[in-house]
Design goal:
Elements (H helix, E strand, L loop, with lengths): L2 E5 L3 H13 L3 E5 L2 H10 L4 E5 L7 H9 L9 E5 L16 E4 L4 H14 L17
Parallel strand pairs: 1-2, 1-3, 3-4, 4-5
């Protein structure tokens, strides 16, 4: 059974994602911000991290950067789920994320994309974000 770490500062959204991925057969861990997520990932590394973009302490991009700089976590697939991004947003140019999805999202499509990341497994991330071999979005 795959483990997903859901990082979301809005309680209702975090609970909805927990329910969605639990029903899809995932073991779900939760964190309410980037700093808590990093601590949680160190204690129990997940198969995939799905994070909100705008959060306190460490936002989604800062969390991804911290993960990529951590030798024990750097190869974990990270995807961002956000309601606040425009197509071509330059912040993602070298973010090393494996996918970006907009809220509101289609439940089945999001689960399928995360399942593709799990199937691809841990992998090296490159300077070019489009080079992720298991890119889900």
């Amino acid at each position: 059974m795959a483990t997903i770490l859901v990082v979301e500062d809005t309680d209702d959204v975090r609970m909805a994602l927990h329910r969605l991925f639990s029903r899809a057969g995932f073991t779900v861990m939760e964190a309410e911000d980037g700093r808590a997520a990093l601590e949680r990932a160190h204690r129990q590394p997940p198969d995939v991290i799905l994070t909100d973009l705008n959060m306190p302490h460490l936002d989604g991009l800062q969390l991804c950067q911290a993960i990529r700089e951590d030798e024990g976590l750097s190869d974990i697939p990270v995807a961002i789920l956000t309601g606040g991004v425009q197509p071509g947003d330059p912040r993602f140019a070298h973010s090393h994320v494996c996918g970006v999805w907009l809220k509101p999202f289609n439940n089945a499509e999001l689960v399928a994309a995360v399942q593709r990341l799990v199937q691809g497994g841990r992998h090296r991330h490159f300077d070019d974000p489009s080079s992720c071999p298991y890119r889900a979005a």
